[in-house]
Design goal:
It is a single chain. This protein is an alpha/beta fold and about 220 residues long. It has two domains: about 130 residues, Rossmann fold, CATH 3.40.50; about 70 residues, ACT domain (Alpha-Beta Plaits, 2-Layer Sandwich), CATH 3.30.70. It is about 25% helix and about 25% strand. The protein is built from six helices and 15 strands. It has a six-stranded mixed beta sheet with strand order 2-1-3-6-14-15, with helices on both faces. Strand 14 and strand 15 form a beta hairpin. The longest helix has 15 residues. The protein is globular, with a radius of gyration of 17 Å. The protein starts with a helix and ends with a strand.
């Protein structure tokens, strides 16, 4: 993520705000840019969505709060893996989807940073929907997902199962075009053992898109 996208996101930040700090490459670029502003005198506090982001934000000098310490956040800045024309999102390739959704839901505004390649005509275009699942329920959830026509595999990295900061597993479901993201999210979340999905429907207020010409702003109706 180039400096122009992070700089544009900084225009949403005001002195004294509490800011949710997302996880992933785009969010990390913003955290570093925000840290530079804090070093120059900006007074903000951050709520990180992952242990990795907490470490980075601390290294950048951003004062941090736990989510339990605040009633509401002014805004959250995060990345996404897919963005459709209505600014609905798929997130979770970085395995922080549940914490990211909790923090986003506790925020007055959600601003998303993406590269142009993340824009899709319809959610599911990249063929992957992350779902966070309690380890005890991986088998039953997997069978349920297959019955729904979206079979999944437990995510691994370097031959080891990926474990989220919540101590759970991520099941990557194979999807095609998702006609009704809200309904699919609801149906999946009604499955015992599912903690949350990577569908972030009707949550983003703005998406900052980075390409070779710089950054541009897309606004939603929220």
């Amino acid at each position: 993520m180039k400096d122009s996208a992070a700089d544009l996101a900084l225009e949403f930040i005001e002195d004294g705000q509490i800011v949710g700090l997302g996880t992933g490459r785009a969010a990390s670029a913003f955290v570093r840019a925000l840290g530079a502003r804090v070093g120059a005198g900006l007074s903000v506090q951050g709520v990180p969505t992952s242990q990795a982001t907490a470490q980075l934000a601390g290294d950048c000098g951003i004062p941090l709060l736990a989510l339990d310490d605040v009633e509401r956040l002014d805004l959250t800045v995060d990345g996404a893996d897919e963005v459709d024309p209505g600014l609905n999102l798929i997130k979770g390739y970085g395995a922080a989807l549940v914490r990211e959704k909790i923090v986003a839901a506790a925020s007055d505004r959600l601003v998303i940073l993406v590269g142009r390649e993340k824009l899709v005509d319809c959610l599911g275009q990249r063929g992957r929907l992350p779902v966070e699942v309690v380890p005890f329920a991986v088998g039953t959830c997997g069978r349920r997902f297959a019955e729904m026509g979206i079979p999944g595999v437990v995510r691994e990295a370097d031959g080891e199962v990926v474990v989220t900061d919540n101590g759970n597993y991520v099941v990557d479901c194979r999807v095609e075009a998702i006609a009704d993201p809200v309904s699919l999210d609801r149906e999946l979340c009604c499955t015992p053992g599912v903690l949350g999905t990577g569908i972030f429907a009707e949550m983003a207020e703005a998406v900052i898109v980075e390409d070779d010409r710089g950054a541009r702003l897309m606004r939603g109706s929220r």
